[in-house]
Structures are given as C-alpha cells and as structure tokens.
Amino acid sequence: MTQTLGYAAKHSFSELRPMTIERAAPAANEVSIAILFCGVCHSDVHQAKNEWKNTLYPCMPGHEIIGRVTAVGASVTRHAVGDTVGVGCMVDSCHACPSCTEGLEQYCSSKEGFLGTYNSYQRAPSAAQHTYGGYSEAIVVREDFVLKIPAGLDLAAAAPLLCAGVTTYSPMKHWNIGAQSHVGIVGLGGLGHIAVKLARALGARVTVVTTSPDKRQAALALGATHVIVSTDAADMTANEATIDFLLSTIPQPHDPNPYLALLKRDGLYAINGCIAPLEAPLDLSKMIIDRKGVVSSLIGGIAETQEVLDFCAQHGIVCTVKVIPIDEVNDAFKAIDEGEPDFRYVIDMASLRTGEPSR
Ligand SMILES: NC(=O)c1ccc[n+]([C@@H]2O[C@H](COP(=O)([O-])OP(=O)(O)OC[C@H]3O[C@@H](n4cnc5c(N)ncnc54)[C@H](OP(=O)(O)O)[C@@H]3O)[C@@H](O)[C@H]2O)c1
Ligand SMILES: [Zn+2]
Ligand SMILES: [Zn+2]
Q: Domain spanning 164-295: which CATH class is it, in words?
C-alpha cells in the first residue's frame, strides 16, 4: 500500500479538502500511474454534491487523467515505465457480456456494470470500500483500461479528451456525422467546446446554440459558422428546421421542445448532458410530423477513447483549458456550478505535491 494524497469531499455540503488514501501496489495486470493532469468535469461537481443521489463519501473525483507509468505488474505488455498514458471514466468491466465483448464497456450489462474510476464499489479486496479518482497523486489501473497518449498532444489540454472528448465524439460517430451533416452543439462549456472542434474535424457544418450571447466570437473561433442564442425567441424561430443533429450538453433539466423545433425532418436531439427529468414532456405532435428522434449516449468505450485520442493527434485538436493548482478546485467547482466556467479547468497535479503550480 502506498499513502497517496488527493482532494476529496466528505459530504455533499463540503468543499474538497486534502485527504490521504491508500493505493495498492499494481497486481500482475495493472500499472501504477503518477498523475500529471486531471480535468474538472461538470460530472465531478454533480457527484461531489450528490446531485445524482448515488455518491459514496468521501468522494475523490477525477476521470480525465493524464500521467506517467511508474510501475507495471508482472504480466503487463501494453505499457512500460515512463510511458505517457490516460485514464477516463472506467477502470474495469465484466469483459464477458455482449457490450464488453463488442468494446462498449460503458454499457456493460453485468449486475455491477462497469467499474467507475471513482464512486464505484470495489470488486476485489482493497484498502478502500470504493474507487477514488484522479484528483490525486497516483492511481493503479488494469492495463487494458489505460490509454496511450499520442506524442505531440499538449498533456494538460489533452486530459479532457478522456471524458469530454469521447462523450461527444462517440454519439457523432454512432449517428454518422460527416460532411453531409449540419450539427448543432447546445451549451458551449467543457463538452460543448470540444464537440465543436470534433464535429468540424469530422467534416460537419457546425452551429452553436448558447444561452450566452457573449460566447459568439469564441464559438466562431472554435470552428462554428453560425450561432443561435437560445434565450432569444426570435433567433430560435428564425432557425427552425435547419439542423440535422443537435448534441445537447445542457447540465440541468430544461424544456427540450424549443430545441426540437430547430431540427429538420429526421433530425435527432441527442441529450447527453442532463440525466434528471426534463422540465417539460416531449411534444410528440411535433416529433411525429417530421419523424424526429430523441436519443442519448454514455461516454465511450475504451477502443473509442483511444480512437478519439488518435483522431485528435491526427487533426491537431486539443481542448481549450485553464490550468489551475489544486487549491483552486473549489473555485472552479463554483464557477462550473454557476454556469460561468472557462471551457475546461485542468488541475496541474504537481501543485498537489509542491503546493505550487508548476507553470
Ligand atoms: N453523457 C455522458 O456520458 C456525459 C459525460 C460527461 C458529462 N456529462 C454531463 O454533461 C453535462 C455538461 O458537462 P460539461 O462538463 O460540459 O459542463 P459545463 O462545462 O458546465 O458546460 C455546460 C454548458 O451548458 C450551458 N448551460 C448551463 N446551464 C444551462 C441551463 N440551465 N440551460 C441551458 N444551457 C445551460 C452553458 O453553455 P452556454 O453558456 O453556451 O449556454 C454551459 O457552459 C453535465 O451535466 C455532465 O454531468 C455527460
Ligand atoms: Zn466527465
Ligand atoms: Zn460487461
């Protein structure tokens, strides 16, 4: 066991504070990783505050992890000491169900489902009752759930690809987004901003649908060619029936019907941000007329996470991030919670070891 420092919330009403946990030595098929950077996902905020009513405390979040391999178990073949690697939202699954067999571990249909990087009950005997995530110095993970970080990617800016990147790439690949598509990205935050870059790289025309008129220039700079301000009813009406695929990253309950009106015939509204009940029922009378659909998807599988990392390296894409020392994580949580974040905060984990940011 190694004493490992991290930041965790003790209760739903607590700020994150330093906490020491124990990480086991790597088993034969595991690697130990010294964490360099960890992105701050809105899911970390939901989870730390128990907004999904399933939080296991103490809660040490973090599932956008980039680090260096420091030790490998005896049978590890995919990674070596010194490699730059990533860990996303999952650290294990059953490996046997139809979804796992197809490389869709996020839909693991075993009784326990996939093992989350944090907030999942441990399956094997361990010092901890549940998993602790990447707001920590180090983590130990099965080698087949560890991603290779392609050379050339800025490491801090690549970290959010492990969740925000694959979560937006996966539905766009599944629903065949390409040069023929007009994609609308709803909500220009952590997921939304990288979704714009990925949709452009897939060849799509991209419109951003935002509550924030002041994000117009940023949206255009990211690669959108059009911006709709969702709080402006006239703007929404003027853009009805123009979009093929709307990817919503709105983190809160909302009325989906104004967004559905933006879709062309056969268009899809992919609700990937909000998992709480919507504020209004779907207006089926409008959906039936133009054969519209509402869909959703969860993160991405391990193979697809590697695919998006390689795709980003190939296309020169990384996230737009603000690197922070870990003692600013509570301020970052507050900004995210209040809907005023920079696109993505990424914690420089060197600050945990030294008390100072490394750059
Ligand atoms: N499906 C999955 O597997 C998956 C994976 C990761 C995260 N998530 C979820 O996705 C959501 C977004 O995560 P994120 O990290 O991108 O969050 P974020 O950085 O806070 O961005 C969300 C954006 O949505 C817009 N927004 C916020 N509140 C809104 C409201 N009440 N009505 C309309 N728009 C609103 C804002 O953009 P504008 O200012 O442009 O309007 C905000 O920047 C979270 O709920 C997270 O838990 C889902
Ligand atoms: Zn996430
Ligand atoms: Zn499975």
A: alpha beta
- Burial pattern 222-237, b for ≥16 Cβ within 10 A else e, equals bbbebbbbbeeeeebe
User: Is the pLDDT score of 201 beyond 50?
Assistant: yes
User: H or E segment at 186?
Assistant: strand 182-186
Ligand 1, atom 13, lies closest to the CA of 42
Provide CB contacts within 8 A for 238, sequence distance 6+: none
Residue 167: CB within 6 Å of ligand 1? yes
Query: Residue 356: its pLDDT value, please?
Result: 62
Contact of 55 with 48, CB cutoff 8 Å: yes
Confidence of residue 355 (pLDDT cuts 50, 70, 90): low
Mean pLDDT of all residues belonging to the chain: 96
Q: pLDDT value at position 357?
A: 53
Residue from 229, 250, 278, 305 whose mutation best tests the ligand 1 pocket (most atoms within 8 A of CB): 250
CATH number of the structural domain 2-163+320-354: 3.90.180.10
Q: Using CA positions, which residue lies closest to atom 39 of ligand 1?
A: 212
Does ligand 1 have an atom closer than 6 angstroms to the CB of 239?
Answer: no
How much distance in Å is there from the Cα of 164 to the middle of ligand 1?
Answer: 10
Tokens linked to 114: 């996939």
Per residue in 103-155, pLDDT tens? 999 999 999 999 999 999 998 777 779 999 999 999 999 999 999 999 999 99
Reply yes or no on whether the pLDDT at 358 is more than 90. Answer: no
Ligand 2 center to 63 CA (angstroms): 6
- Considering every ligand atom shown, identify the ligand nearest to the alpha carbon of residue 273 and give its number: 1
Q: Domain limits of the chain?
A: 2-163+320-354, 164-295
Q: What is the pTM of this model?
A: 0.97
Give Cα 268 distance to the centre of its chain: 21
